[in-house]
Amino acid sequence: MARIAVLTGGSTPERTVALAGAAKVSAALRARGHDVTVFDTIEPGPLDAELERRRLGRSVGTRPPSLAELRELEVREDLSSLVAGELGSHDAVFLVLHGRQGEGGEVQGLLEAAGIAYTGSDARSSRLAMDKDRSKRRFRDAGIPTPDWLTWPGRQSDIEELGLPLIVKPSRVGSTVGLTLMADLFDLDSAVGKALTFDDQVILEQFLPGREYTVGVLDGQALGVGEIVAPGVIFDFHSKYTPGRAREIFPAEIDEALQSRFRDLARAAHEALALRDFSRVDFRLDAAGSPCCLEVNTLPGMTPTSLLPQSAAVFGISFEDLCDRMIRLALRRVVQFGRED
Length: 341
Hints:
The protein is α+β, with helices and mostly antiparallel strands. It has helices spanning 15-31, 49-56, 67-76, 79-84, 99-103, 106-113, 123-130, 132-141, 156-162, 188-196, 237-241, 256-272, 307-314, 319-337, and strands spanning 3-8, 35-40, 92-96, 149-151, 166-170, 180-182, 202-206, 212-218, 221-229, 247-249, 278-285, 291-297. Strands 10-9-8-11-12 form a 5-stranded antiparallel β-sheet. The protein is globular, with a radius of gyration of 19 Å.
């Protein structure tokens, strides 16, 4: 049995997603005999049993928190003090955080400096994966197909060359927050303005008309391929977190050759970004029916019905097994190196 700190919450638009995942992860780790304490990044210390029950018991909701709510949370948040406090008394930290703050390397860097082991990829690779422009450049260098794109601002001729419709989105935000599917160039300023609300870097990406798929990676192994069938054109926040709105088919009903192609590309994308432990890689088919990599999630959603756990379940890995394997990968680094690198 290990002493595990589950670090969750955050002050990003994906806060409620993180809290929902932390509820399931902490229960799974406790079921496996671990001694678990939950920390919310906006609190100076651990959550007591009652506060944990109330905070983790909320639903995700169909809309992200408002910007006003997020600003209030940011005032309360002090990651440096939290890491320097009680987190260090635990054997490892299980990260259930999303968005730029959780996945973008900030908390990973603080934990590394403090010598505290944690789940998932290191600070450098987390920063790379979170930056959609930089990560897509890595995909191209590694021969991994990805939709054409450019960063804002761009020349009018280059934008027109991408064609319509276009995906306009923040470069370092997840869960499709701030994303617009733009069908007319007259809407460009509005779409960019929306994205800039959440990040100062915006990318314009060619929209691919084909079906959407996802593949989990765990300890160097590509897991099951799943297909996401959204009611609209894109798998947006509302579709992701409204029960019954989207269908997630695991395993995807595709032939073995295409499954193998997805799994090979998922592993290649994971390796191209020098990730470790686990990730989830998202794809869309182009007009010719060939897979193109959209992005890689280094701290994907973690409820039993989230995409990575469903991908693992295809390979017979239960949610409890998955959580236990994730934390043991972090603990293994402690044994190997005597500290977190």
